[in-house]
Amino acid sequence: MAKTTKRIGPRKGKLPEVALDSPIVEEDLPLKFVHYPNHYGAFFMFSSALRKEAYFCECCYEAVNNSFKLVQYESKNNWSDEKVAAPLSSHLFPNGISKASLKTDWSKLLRFKKKLCHRCIMATPTLRFCHEMYGGNFKQYYGWYLHIPEQFDPLFRSKLTPHSGTS
Ligand SMILES: [Zn+2]
After folding, report:
1. Contact 142, 118 (CB under 8 A)
2. Rounded Cα–Cα distance for residues 94 and 103 (Å)
3. Which end of the chain has fewer CB atoms surrounding its CB within 10 Å, N or C?
4. Nearest by Cα to 151 from 94, 83, 92
């Protein structure tokens, strides 16, 4: 990504809020309801209406499937929130699907559709991944998408950005 990131986000006024507790907001995407992951999570889901079925973007297919390796680790720990150790851990996934995965066979919850996400549509999320103290412009707006390759797709990471640790 040689492009400058200075123009990402609003030019003036208040910065958008940081997405903390898996909010659902309406954005200008093919499926307008955007289910954010929890703070520092990884995977978005998208639905056409609030109560309609939510989908992952197909570009995350491999990463979602790889994520189960990590969840095996989560389930060995005692978390006060049962969603963390759910088959679809709330550390990575939106709260809705995480909760559902406690009761339903998770393989039935994984639905994918092509070109739904900010990355594929080249849209900027309306909420931020982190506060400006914890990351530059690119990380603030696309941190989730960086998080995916960092954890699950090293090949993709090397194409996207040089690994920059916590910055
Ligand atoms: Zn995508």
Report:
1. yes
2. 15
3. C
4. 92
DSSP string, 22-85: --EEE-SSSS-EEE--STT----EEESSTTSPPBEEGGGHHHHHHHHHHHHHHTTS--SSTTTT
Domain map of the chain by residue range? Answer: 24-157
pLDDT one-digit tens code per residue, 72-115: 666 666 777 888 888 888 989 999 999 999 999 888 899 999 99
Q: How far is the CA of 121 from the centre of ligand 1 (A)?
A: 7
Strand order in the sheet with 24-26: 24-26, 33-35, 45-47
> pTM score, two decimals?
0.80
The radius of gyration of the chain from alpha carbons, rounded to an integer in Å, stands at 15
The Å distance, Cα 120 to ligand 1 centre, comes to 4
The alpha carbon of 56 and the centre of ligand 1 are apart by a number of angstroms equal to 8
**79 C-alpha vs ligand 1 centroid, how far in Å?**
30
